[in-house]
Amino acid sequence: MCRHIAYVGRPSALGDLLVRPPHGLLRQSWAPRRQRHGTVNADGFGVGWYAEGDPVPARYRRAGPVWADPSFTDLARVVRSEALLAAVRDATEAGADGEAAAAPFAAGPWLFSHNGAVRDWPAGVAPLAAALPAAELLSLEARCDSALVWALVLHRLREGDEPGQALADTVLDVARAAPGSRLNLLLTDGVAIAATAWGDTLCYLTVPGRGTVVASEPYDDDPRWCEVPDRALLTATRTDVLTTPLKEPPA
Protein backbone atom coordinates (compact mmCIF):
# COMPACT_ATOMS: atom_id res chain seq x y z
CA MET A 1 0.00 0.00 0.00
CA CYS A 2 0.91 3.67 -0.15
CA ARG A 3 0.05 6.84 1.74
CA HIS A 4 -1.43 9.89 0.07
CA ILE A 5 -2.93 13.28 0.87
CA ALA A 6 -4.82 16.08 -0.91
CA TYR A 7 -5.57 19.62 0.20
CA VAL A 8 -7.71 22.54 -0.99
CA GLY A 9 -7.85 25.81 0.93
CA ARG A 10 -6.01 29.01 1.60
CA PRO A 11 -2.41 29.22 0.33
CA SER A 12 -0.09 27.07 2.45
CA ALA A 13 3.53 26.00 2.18
CA LEU A 14 3.82 22.41 0.97
CA GLY A 15 5.95 21.68 4.01
CA ASP A 16 3.20 22.80 6.41
CA LEU A 17 1.10 19.89 5.14
CA LEU A 18 3.71 17.27 4.23
CA VAL A 19 6.87 17.79 6.30
CA ARG A 20 6.23 19.75 9.49
CA PRO A 21 3.28 17.83 11.00
CA PRO A 22 4.50 15.25 13.54
CA HIS A 23 2.98 12.39 11.55
CA GLY A 24 3.01 13.98 8.11
CA LEU A 25 3.61 12.27 4.80
CA LEU A 26 7.37 12.51 5.26
CA ARG A 27 7.21 10.47 8.47
CA GLN A 28 4.59 8.15 7.00
CA SER A 29 7.19 7.06 4.47
CA TRP A 30 8.94 5.05 7.21
CA ALA A 31 6.54 5.07 10.18
CA PRO A 32 2.89 5.09 9.11
CA ARG A 33 0.48 4.66 11.99
CA ARG A 34 -2.52 3.13 10.22
CA GLN A 35 -1.11 1.33 7.20
CA ARG A 36 -2.61 -2.16 6.95
CA HIS A 37 -0.50 -3.54 4.08
CA GLY A 38 3.25 -3.04 3.74
CA THR A 39 5.56 -1.27 6.15
CA VAL A 40 7.97 1.08 4.34
CA ASN A 41 6.94 3.53 1.61
CA ALA A 42 10.26 3.84 -0.15
CA ASP A 43 9.62 3.07 -3.83
CA GLY A 44 9.09 6.61 -5.01
CA PHE A 45 7.15 9.70 -4.04
CA GLY A 46 5.64 12.76 -5.61
CA VAL A 47 3.77 15.98 -5.06
CA GLY A 48 1.65 18.01 -7.45
CA TRP A 49 0.50 21.56 -6.78
CA TYR A 50 -1.24 24.47 -8.46
CA ALA A 51 0.22 27.94 -9.03
CA GLU A 52 -2.07 30.96 -8.94
CA GLY A 53 -3.60 31.65 -12.34
CA ASP A 54 -2.53 28.33 -13.89
CA PRO A 55 -5.03 25.44 -13.92
CA VAL A 56 -2.38 22.89 -14.92
CA PRO A 57 -0.46 21.59 -11.90
CA ALA A 58 3.29 21.19 -11.56
CA ARG A 59 4.75 17.89 -10.32
CA TYR A 60 7.93 16.84 -8.52
CA ARG A 61 8.46 13.06 -8.52
CA ARG A 62 11.35 10.76 -7.73
CA ALA A 63 11.94 7.01 -7.77
CA GLY A 64 13.61 6.81 -4.35
CA PRO A 65 12.42 7.45 -0.79
CA VAL A 66 11.35 10.96 0.13
CA TRP A 67 13.63 11.02 3.21
CA ALA A 68 16.67 10.73 0.92
CA ASP A 69 15.84 13.85 -1.09
CA PRO A 70 16.87 17.06 0.72
CA SER A 71 15.90 19.07 -2.34
CA PHE A 72 12.28 18.13 -1.73
CA THR A 73 12.22 19.41 1.84
CA ASP A 74 13.86 22.64 0.70
CA LEU A 75 11.33 23.07 -2.10
CA ALA A 76 8.45 22.27 0.27
CA ARG A 77 9.64 24.98 2.66
CA VAL A 78 9.10 27.82 0.19
CA VAL A 79 6.52 26.69 -2.40
CA ARG A 80 2.98 27.74 -1.49
CA SER A 81 -0.28 26.60 -3.07
CA GLU A 82 -4.04 26.57 -2.58
CA ALA A 83 -4.19 22.91 -3.55
CA LEU A 84 -1.94 19.86 -3.71
CA LEU A 85 -1.87 16.08 -3.98
CA ALA A 86 1.09 14.08 -2.71
CA ALA A 87 1.92 10.41 -2.20
CA VAL A 88 4.63 8.02 -1.05
CA ARG A 89 4.77 4.59 -2.71
CA ASP A 90 5.00 1.33 -0.82
CA ALA A 91 8.06 -0.83 -1.39
CA THR A 92 7.09 -3.38 -4.03
CA GLU A 93 8.58 -5.76 -6.57
CA ALA A 94 11.38 -4.45 -8.73
CA GLY A 95 10.33 -2.81 -11.96
CA ALA A 96 11.65 -0.57 -14.72
CA ASP A 97 9.11 2.25 -14.41
CA GLY A 98 10.99 4.33 -11.83
CA GLU A 99 9.43 7.69 -11.06
CA ALA A 100 6.86 7.19 -13.82
CA ALA A 101 5.07 4.81 -11.43
CA ALA A 102 5.05 7.36 -8.59
CA ALA A 103 1.89 9.35 -7.96
CA PRO A 104 0.53 11.81 -8.61
CA PHE A 105 -0.43 10.95 -12.15
CA ALA A 106 -1.61 13.96 -14.13
CA ALA A 107 -3.56 15.09 -17.18
CA GLY A 108 -4.83 18.61 -17.84
CA PRO A 109 -6.05 20.03 -14.50
CA TRP A 110 -6.18 16.65 -12.79
CA LEU A 111 -3.93 15.02 -10.20
CA PHE A 112 -4.56 11.39 -9.19
CA SER A 113 -3.26 8.78 -6.76
CA HIS A 114 -4.12 5.14 -6.00
CA ASN A 115 -3.50 3.70 -2.55
CA GLY A 116 -3.94 -0.06 -2.82
CA ALA A 117 -3.40 -2.95 -5.19
CA VAL A 118 -5.30 -4.63 -8.00
CA ARG A 119 -5.70 -8.34 -7.27
CA ASP A 120 -4.53 -10.84 -9.87
CA TRP A 121 -2.59 -8.18 -11.76
CA PRO A 122 -2.58 -7.93 -14.74
CA ALA A 123 -4.79 -10.80 -15.88
CA GLY A 124 -7.77 -9.89 -13.72
CA VAL A 125 -8.31 -6.51 -15.32
CA ALA A 126 -7.14 -7.31 -18.83
CA PRO A 127 -10.71 -7.00 -20.22
CA LEU A 128 -10.98 -3.48 -18.76
CA ALA A 129 -7.67 -2.50 -20.33
CA ALA A 130 -8.75 -3.95 -23.67
CA ALA A 131 -11.86 -1.77 -23.64
CA LEU A 132 -9.83 1.44 -23.54
CA PRO A 133 -9.06 3.22 -26.83
CA ALA A 134 -5.68 2.08 -28.12
CA ALA A 135 -4.21 5.60 -27.96
CA GLU A 136 -5.10 5.89 -24.25
CA LEU A 137 -3.66 2.47 -23.46
CA LEU A 138 -0.43 3.27 -25.30
CA SER A 139 -0.18 6.56 -23.39
CA LEU A 140 0.12 4.93 -19.97
CA GLU A 141 2.97 6.52 -17.99
CA ALA A 142 3.88 3.20 -16.39
CA ARG A 143 2.97 -0.49 -16.54
CA CYS A 144 1.74 -0.76 -12.95
CA ASP A 145 -1.80 -1.26 -11.69
CA SER A 146 -2.13 2.35 -10.51
CA ALA A 147 -1.37 3.69 -13.98
CA LEU A 148 -4.12 1.55 -15.49
CA VAL A 149 -6.63 2.57 -12.82
CA TRP A 150 -5.78 6.19 -13.62
CA ALA A 151 -6.34 5.54 -17.33
CA LEU A 152 -9.79 4.11 -16.55
CA VAL A 153 -10.68 7.14 -14.42
CA LEU A 154 -9.31 9.61 -16.95
CA HIS A 155 -11.31 7.99 -19.76
CA ARG A 156 -14.50 8.57 -17.79
CA LEU A 157 -13.55 12.17 -17.03
CA ARG A 158 -12.92 12.82 -20.72
CA GLU A 159 -16.31 11.30 -21.51
CA GLY A 160 -17.91 13.90 -19.25
CA ASP A 161 -18.37 12.08 -15.94
CA GLU A 162 -18.26 14.12 -12.75
CA PRO A 163 -15.14 13.35 -10.66
CA GLY A 164 -16.99 11.42 -7.97
CA GLN A 165 -18.88 9.36 -10.53
CA ALA A 166 -15.69 8.60 -12.46
CA LEU A 167 -14.01 7.29 -9.30
CA ALA A 168 -17.02 5.32 -8.07
CA ASP A 169 -17.70 3.60 -11.39
CA THR A 170 -14.02 2.76 -11.87
CA VAL A 171 -13.79 1.25 -8.39
CA LEU A 172 -16.87 -0.89 -8.97
CA ASP A 173 -15.62 -2.06 -12.39
CA VAL A 174 -12.20 -3.03 -11.02
CA ALA A 175 -13.67 -4.65 -7.91
CA ARG A 176 -15.99 -6.71 -10.08
CA ALA A 177 -13.18 -7.80 -12.42
CA ALA A 178 -10.63 -8.39 -9.66
CA PRO A 179 -12.39 -9.13 -6.34
CA GLY A 180 -10.31 -8.39 -3.28
CA SER A 181 -8.60 -5.36 -4.84
CA ARG A 182 -7.84 -2.40 -2.58
CA LEU A 183 -8.91 0.80 -4.28
CA ASN A 184 -8.47 3.97 -2.27
CA LEU A 185 -8.41 6.60 -5.02
CA LEU A 186 -7.70 10.32 -4.69
CA LEU A 187 -8.41 12.96 -7.35
CA THR A 188 -8.31 16.76 -7.46
CA ASP A 189 -8.56 19.55 -10.01
CA GLY A 190 -7.23 22.16 -7.58
CA VAL A 191 -10.73 23.27 -6.57
CA ALA A 192 -12.35 20.14 -5.16
CA ILE A 193 -11.32 16.65 -4.03
CA ALA A 194 -12.91 13.28 -4.75
CA ALA A 195 -11.78 10.08 -3.05
CA THR A 196 -12.83 6.50 -2.37
CA ALA A 197 -12.31 4.35 0.69
CA TRP A 198 -12.14 0.74 -0.48
CA GLY A 199 -9.90 -1.57 1.50
CA ASP A 200 -7.79 0.83 3.56
CA THR A 201 -8.04 3.87 5.78
CA LEU A 202 -9.15 7.32 4.65
CA CYS A 203 -9.62 10.40 6.85
CA TYR A 204 -10.46 14.06 6.44
CA LEU A 205 -10.03 17.29 8.36
CA THR A 206 -11.86 20.55 7.69
CA VAL A 207 -10.55 23.63 9.49
CA PRO A 208 -12.77 26.75 9.20
CA GLY A 209 -10.89 29.57 7.54
CA ARG A 210 -8.16 27.27 6.29
CA GLY A 211 -9.41 24.40 4.13
CA THR A 212 -9.90 20.65 3.83
CA VAL A 213 -7.37 17.82 3.96
CA VAL A 214 -8.15 14.28 2.79
CA ALA A 215 -5.49 11.70 3.66
CA SER A 216 -4.76 8.03 4.21
CA GLU A 217 -4.23 8.82 7.88
CA PRO A 218 -4.14 11.89 10.15
CA TYR A 219 -0.90 13.85 10.16
CA ASP A 220 -1.42 14.92 13.78
CA ASP A 221 -3.66 14.20 16.77
CA ASP A 222 -6.21 16.96 16.16
CA PRO A 223 -9.53 15.54 17.46
CA ARG A 224 -11.38 17.05 14.50
CA TRP A 225 -10.07 14.37 12.12
CA CYS A 226 -12.91 12.15 10.87
CA GLU A 227 -12.58 8.63 9.49
CA VAL A 228 -14.38 7.72 6.26
CA PRO A 229 -16.19 4.37 6.44
CA ASP A 230 -14.97 1.63 4.14
CA ARG A 231 -16.81 1.28 0.82
CA ALA A 232 -17.54 5.00 0.54
CA LEU A 233 -17.12 7.90 -1.88
CA LEU A 234 -15.98 11.26 -0.52
CA THR A 235 -16.34 14.60 -2.27
CA ALA A 236 -14.95 17.75 -0.69
CA THR A 237 -14.36 21.46 -1.17
CA ARG A 238 -12.40 23.74 1.14
CA THR A 239 -15.49 24.12 3.36
CA ASP A 240 -17.68 21.03 2.89
CA VAL A 241 -17.31 17.24 2.87
CA LEU A 242 -19.88 14.68 1.73
CA THR A 243 -19.58 10.90 2.01
CA THR A 244 -21.77 8.42 0.12
CA PRO A 245 -21.83 4.61 0.55
CA LEU A 246 -20.63 2.45 -2.33
CA LYS A 247 -22.29 -0.92 -2.81
CA GLU A 248 -20.19 -4.03 -3.24
CA PRO A 249 -20.58 -5.22 -6.86
CA PRO A 250 -22.37 -8.55 -7.36
CA ALA A 251 -20.16 -11.60 -7.75
From TrEMBL:
Domain Glutamine amidotransferase type-2: 2-251
Record carries keyword Hydrolase: yes
Gene3D superfamilies listed in its UniProt record: Glutamine Phosphoribosylpyrophosphate, subunit 1, domain 1
Protein name from the UniProt record: Gamma-glutamyl-hercynylcysteine sulfoxide hydrolase
Record flagged with keyword DNA-binding: no
Keywords: Glutamine amidotransferase, Hydrolase
Lineage top rank: taxon: Bacteria
BP term (GO), one: ergothioneine biosynthetic process
Name of the gene encoding the protein in the UniProt record: egtC
UniProt-recorded Gene Ontology molecular function terms: hydrolase activity, acting on carbon-nitrogen (but not peptide) bonds, in linear amides
Pathway of action: Amino-acid biosynthesis; ergothioneine biosynthesis
